[in-house]
Amino acid sequence: MRMTVYGLSFELTDAIVQHVEGRIKLSLGTASDRIDAVFVRLSDINGNRGGVDKCCRITVRLRHLRSNVVVEAVDRDLYVAVNQAAARAKHALWRQLKRRRTLRREYANRSLQSLAA
After folding, report:
1. pTM here?
2. What's the CA gap between 3 and 25, in Å, rounded?
3. What letter would DSSP give residue 36?
4. Whole-angstrom Cα distance, residue 78 to residue 70?
5. Which residues lie across from 70 on neighbouring strands?
6. Assuming Cys at both sites, which of 15, 69, 79, 81 could form a disulfide with 75, CB separation 3.0 to 4.6 Å?
7. pLDDT tens, 73-84?
């Protein structure tokens, strides 16, 4: 699983990058064999004006699938936004993989029924 972390409108510190990488590995590590790449974009929406404006957007590119899982979280604290986005990414990833298993099973059942007929 390749991981790319980049920041828009501010410099990334080592502490932020380590936090992001740790949370992503913790949240998505069990499915790392199904993940091709993870892109994490951190941004400060309002700049220096303050407010609820730290955004974390996570894009998970899955192996052997054409679709990506994309989630986003916004909070006043960047670390909280990263935690929320990682939790959402985990939930969305497992939902996508479950949907894929279900569709594959239904397709196999239809194929078996057509062969039996």
Report:
1. 0.81
2. 9
3. E
4. 18
5. 59
6. 81
7. 999 899 999 999
In whole angstroms, how far apart are CA 30 and each of 49, 56, 61, 111?
A: 39, 21, 15, 31
Contact at 8 Å (CB) between 38 and 2? yes
pLDDT in tens, the chain (117 residues): 899 999 987 789 999 999 999 999 999 988 888 899 999 999 988 776 666 689 999 999 998 777 799 999 999 899 999 999 999 999 999 998 887 766 555 555 555 555 555
Q: Residue 42: beta bridge partners? A: 7, 56
CB 51: neighbour CB atoms within 10 A?
8
CA distance 42 to 116: 54
d(CA 6, CA 16): 10
Q: What is the pLDDT of residues 39-57, one digit of tens each?
A: 999 998 877 666 668 999 9
